[in-house]
Specification:
heterodimer, A: about 300 residues, mainly alpha, MetI-like fold, 2 domains, 15 helices, B: about 300 residues, about 75% helix, about 0% strand
């Protein structure tokens, strides 16, 4: 007994005791669902049991029009949010950290506040702002500009304005903060020597700031890719559930939810999940290799 | 923006600088105003008749004469007017504060357990050299690169089998070893001096004693950062709790608010006032601990 206690207190065993919760959690709540998800995607799952169906689900997915719409929507959303959520926050952060801007603290605090709101609350606010009535705010603005009010959330172009604005509204402040902290880690003496060489503001941005911000950009792009591809709740809130007109708001995760939870077709839904995972991994690997972040050399920080 | 001319005199430089300062500060004022707009609109809407919000959406009109506290007095019926004969109001108010309480309990439990467990895991990864160290750290990164939504359905099935569906444990257990939290703690502790450990060992402190009595106090700032991020995530979490909870009286605030958003608009008084009141805990934490939050959040972006 004493021996066991001594062993448990030794420097050799202690780290394993500390790490035990992670090892257990990894096995039970990560590896198991991951593997069983992949296995289930080859099965028909019902209350009576599981039946192996091979690649049937995947064949069906390839012909599934709704799934094609969902993938197209998710990828489109991801690309558009990348275009909006990388350059704009970067420029705002550069401007904010330049000596030109006064009262930065105030702007930073205000710009971050939307990120504190939940999807439910922010989604509800945007839904009410873009509601059909002729006295919703967006329609009032249209009327001020001399245009007729429109049902914003009923057609894709205008509905996606609301969807993308919701994303921009919630995350611009956060991404600006990422870039601000990235800028703060840049050695200021580089700019001083650039000044001595007579570099212009644009040159300094292009040849110094942009390359030195690369780690931040890689980080922001990576999280935006994941967030964009797995977007679901935003559209769930804007259209009060998982049924938008003509599926303009249907996303991959939305479809996974619909098949798995609403229609209780777990096997098929898991196949959707596996496809999502493959898309996410491929995009991320391409991105990480393209930016040179991922090489098989070990880096010590 | 100030543009560099080829041979700038001191005077034009100073003038350019002034114009630039004005323009960029004005830009940020404008951006901040636009960002504040939806929340301010929601706040003002919460002081207007609920029927109007439902029928006409939130309006730009600010007719102060029509302002009313009705939505809030409805929301707080339970406290303000507990002996009312209006049974619906009382039931609605009770329901809302039950969700509120559920969210508070769940958030508190999640934060305390997640932080403690992640701290000890990170402690082992940063303070010891052991066989599995490198592999475990690799797995921390690996789990971060698989979106939760993919694991969602199998996990849902799994916790149904285990029998923790419809319980708080079902919500927080799968997320206790949050990879990003472990990562942050590890980064933080790797920079701490390890000589402290040896000194404590010489003094006869056990491995577990060191981790609690010596290292934990030094790691306080990291705890603060992660506590805020974790609390925010848990308070606002929606998708997973929506799957786990089935009974209305177990709902968290976010799921509860979502159920109020019906096409009939009969609950908009509760919804709009309740939403605004639901932001308050996070807003208070944010305004007090702003600095820690920013540190915790941005650490990944710089170190990569």
């Amino acid at each position: 007994m004493k021996k066991v206690k001594k062993l448990l207190y030794s420097q050799k065993i202690a780290p394993y005791v500390f790490a035990l919760p992670f090892i257990l959690s990894l096995l039970i709540f990560w590896l198991y669902p991951l593997v069983s998800g992949i296995v289930m995607s080859f099965q028909d799952v019902s209350f009576s049991g599981m039946k192996f169906v091979g690649i049937q689900h995947y064949q069906k997915l390839a012909r599934d029009k709704f799934f094609a719409t969902a993938v197209a929507n998710s990828v489109e959303y991801m690309v558009l949010t990348l275009l909006l959520m990388v350059p704009i926050p970067m420029l705002l952060a550069v401007l904010m950290e330049s000596r030109l801007t006064k009262a930065r603290g105030v702007w930073k605090v205000i710009m971050y506040i939307p990120a504190l709101t939940s999807v439910v609350i922010s989604g509800m606010l945007f839904r009410l702002m873009f509601s059909e009535g002729d006295s919703s705010q967006m329609n009032q603005i249209l009327q001020m500009l001399g245009k007729a009010p429109i049902p914003w959330l009923k057609s894709k172009g205008t509905a996606w304005c609301a969807l993308l604005l919701l994303c921009v509204w919630r995350w611009t402040g956060v991404n600006v903060l990422y870039y601000v902290s990235g800028l703060k880690s840049i050695d200021t003496s580089l700019y001083e020597s650039a000044d001595i060489d007579g570099a212009s503001g644009v040159q300094k941005f292009w040849y110094l700031t942009l390359p030195l911000l690369k780690p931040t950009t890689v980080y922001v792009v990576t999280i935006s890719v994941f967030a964009g591809l797995s977007m679901f709740l935003e559209s769930f809130m804007l259209w009060n559930g998982n049924s938008s007109p003509k599926n303009i708001g249907l996303t991959i995760v939305g479809y996974l939810y619909k098949r798995g939870i609403e229609k209780n077709d777990m096997g098929y839904a898991c196949a959707v999940g596996v496809v999502l995972m493959v898309i996410a991994l491929v995009i991320n690997f391409v991105q990480l290799f393209a930016t040179g972040t991922l090489s098989f050399k070990k880096k010590e920080d | 923006m100030a543009k560099n001319t080829n041979t700038p005199t001191q005077k034009t430089m100073a003038e350019n600088h002034k114009v630039g300062t004005f323009l960029s500060t004005a830009l940020f004022a404008l951006v901040s105003a636009l960002i504040a707009f939806p929340l301010l609109a929601g706040l003002t809407a919460s002081f207007r008749p609920a029927r109007e919000i439902f029928q006409r959406g939130m309006s730009l009109n600010l007719n102060f004469k029509e302002w009313t506290m009705a939505n809030y007095s409805y929301l707080f019926t339970k406290f303000l007017n507990p002996k009312t004969t209006d049974a619906t109001a009382l039931a609605d108010s009770r329901k809302y504060f039950m969700w509120y309480k559920n969210s508070l309990v769940l958030t508190l439990t999640t934060v305390v357990l997640t932080l403690l467990i992640c701290y000890f895991v990170a402690y082992s990864l940063s303070m010891y050299k052991f066989k599995l160290n490198g592999f475990l750290f690799f797995m921390v990164i690996a789990t971060m690169s698989v979106p939760f939504e993919i694991l969602m359905l199998p996990l849902y099935k799994e916790i149904t089998t285990i029998g923790i569906i419809n319980t708080n444990a079902g919500v927080y257990l799968p997320g206790l070893c949050a990879a990003s939290t472990i990562f942050f703690f590890r980064q933080y502790m790797t920079s701490l001096p390890k000589e402290l450990l040896d000194a404590a060992r010489v003094d006869g402190c056990t491995e577990y004693g060191i981790s609690v009595k010596i290292m934990m106090p030094i790691t306080k700032p990291a705890f603060a950062s992660m506590a805020i991020l974790c609390a925010m995530g848990s308070w606002n979490n929606m998708l997973w709790p929506m799957l786990v909870f089935r009974d209305t009286n177990k709902f968290t605030l976010q799921i509860g608010l979502n159920t109020l958003l019906t096409p009939y608009g009969n609950n908009y008084d509760l919804l709009i006032a309740g939403s605004m009141f639901g932001i308050i805990p996070i807003l208070i934490i944010y305004l007090i601990f702003n600095r820690y939050l920013v540190e915790g959040m941005t650490s990944g972006a710089v170190k990569g």
